[in-house]
Amino acid sequence: MLECTIEQASTLKKILDAVKELVADANFDCSDAGLSLQAMDNSHVALVALLLRSTAFSPFRCDQNLSLGINLSSFSKILKCANNDDTVTLKADSGVDTINLAFESKNGARQSEYDLKLMDIDSEHLGIPDTPYEATVKMSSAEFQRICRDLRILNESIVIDVTKEGVKFSSSGDLGNGSIFIKSGQSSIDEKDEDTATTITLQSPVSLTFSLKYLCDFAKATPLSNTVTLSLSNDVPLLVEYAVNEVGYIRYYLAPKIGED
Fold first, then answer.
1. Among the listed ranges 8-12, 107-111, 190-194, which one has the minimum average pLDDT value?
2. Could you state, in order of their start, the residue ranges of all structural domains in the chain?
3. According to the model, what pLDDT value does residue 121 have?
4. What is the pTM assigned to this prediction?
5. What sequence ranges are listed for the domain Proliferating cell nuclear antigen PCNA C-terminal (predicted)?
6. Residues 219/141, Cβ–Cβ less than 8 Å
7. Contacts of 83 (CB under 8 A, 6+ apart)
8. Lateral strand order in the sheet of 227-232
């Protein structure tokens, strides 16, 4: 039996918006530790891993491990029926082919319930090894989203160069070329906001090329966190991580492009 309540529907809405463009159907794995999801996109190019710890919910009850196959688009449509500040209670049980969603307004005056049919999804759970990265960049998530959006007008690929001075994003195509350099230790959004100041941890300089289509999809998680962390190493997938209210995270993994200038 799973029964858990999250205080604001807006949190779940933002999480689904950050995942559903990449993955259509996925298993939510439920345990006493919380809710997790791991899935590849349809092209098997990117991997998304989501964790919401049990502390994200109050109350949280999960008597036995459950795997709930859910169509994320349908889940998102039902969540749109809730106001952003409604509480959302999820209920599911083994042997039942639906998950129950109950919404309640802040003052308790409005309550609504929906049952969403579950799916039987055959998915392989991939082991993600702990990787020591050569370069880690923590920066404003809004700035990262804007950079990806702006440079996509030039090409579908982006080169990320990390040095101790800062991080440079560049792209070139038939239209022309462009680059954006963010200095280490400074905030490009608001000089007074130390939380979004760009910080770089560097073992050695890195220069890698990635698909902008995927990075733009990853950046849909921007509303969840003021900052994003990019972890890069040669010959291993890029890790793009957004924290979720200190009770979880969304991590995206994307292999670098090979053989591009």
1. 190-194
2. 2-117, 135-254
3. 84
4. 0.92
5. 127-257
6. yes
7. 9, 103, 105
8. 66-71, 25-31, 34-40, 46-53, 248-254, 238-243, 227-232, 135-140, 199-202
- Provide the percentage of residues in the chain whose pLDDT is more than 70: 95
Q: Please say if the pLDDT value at position 250 is more than 80.
A: yes
Report the topology of domain 2-117.
Proliferating Cell Nuclear Antigen (3.70.10)
The residue-averaged pLDDT of 48-57 equals 96
User: Looking at the domain that runs over 135-254, which CATH code has it been given?
Assistant: 3.70.10.10
Give pLDDT, residue 142: 96
197 token code pair: 């100041």
The predicted structure's pLDDT at residue 196: 75
